[in-house]
Amino acid sequence: EIKALLAQILLRVVEKIRQSISEGNITSSTKNVCKKYTYYFLVFCSLAEQNHKSSNGTVEQVKPKGTKGTKATKKSQSLAPIYCFTTLLPSCLHSQLSLVSLPNLTKLWSMGIISEVLLNQLCSFSIKVLEEKH
C-alpha cells in the first residue's frame, strides 16, 4: 500500500516540477527542491526495478485488514491497492522522458550542467530497463 501511494505521490510531484520548468516558474529558492524531488523519483524508480527483478516479477497481493473469522467485503477488496512495478513502469518512463526532453531543464543547475549523480541515476535506470527487455 505504501509503495503504491509513494509512487503516485512522486509521479504527481515530478509532473508539477515538469510543468513549472516548462512554464519558467522556477525561482532560485525552488531550484533545490525540484532537484531533490527529481532525484528521489529516480532513486525510487531504480529501487522499484531492483525489487521487481529480485522478486521475479511476482505481484504482492495486499489483503484488506479485517477481524478474525469475518470475510472482507467486495468494497474493501476493491479499495486495497496492489503494488506492481510492471504497471508503474510506463508512467515512470514517461515522466523521465518528459523531464529529459525539456529544453530548459539545465536551468536548475549552475552553469547549465546537470548533476552527475542525477544523470547517473537516470541513465542506469534506463539501461537496466532496456537490458531486461532484450
Compact overview of the structure:
The protein is an all-alpha fold and 134 residues long. The protein contains five helices and no strands.
Features:
134 residues, mainly alpha, globular
User: Quick check: average pLDDT?
Assistant: 75
- Secondary structure tally, helices: 5
Output the structural class.
Answer: mainly alpha
Low-confidence sequence ranges: 58-64, 72-82
Please bin the fraction of helical residues. 55-70%
Whole-number radius of gyration? 18 Å
Count all strands and give the number.
0
Largest sheet: none
- Helix and strand succession? HHHHH
End-to-end distance:
30 Å
Name the overall outline: globular
Task: Quote the beta fraction.
Answer: under 5%
Question: How would you describe what is shown here?
Answer:
It is a single chain. By secondary structure, this protein is mainly alpha-helical. It is built from five helices and no strands. Helix 1 packs antiparallel against helix 2 (28-54) and helix 2 packs antiparallel against helix 4. It is globular, with a radius of gyration of 18 Å. The relative contact order is 0.17. Mean pLDDT is 75; it is low at 58-64 and 72-82.
Give the secondary structure arrangement, pairings included.
Elements (H helix, E strand, L loop, with lengths): L1 H22 L4 H27 L19 H6 L5 H16 L15 H18 L1
Helix pairs in contact: 1-2, 1-4, 2-4, 2-5
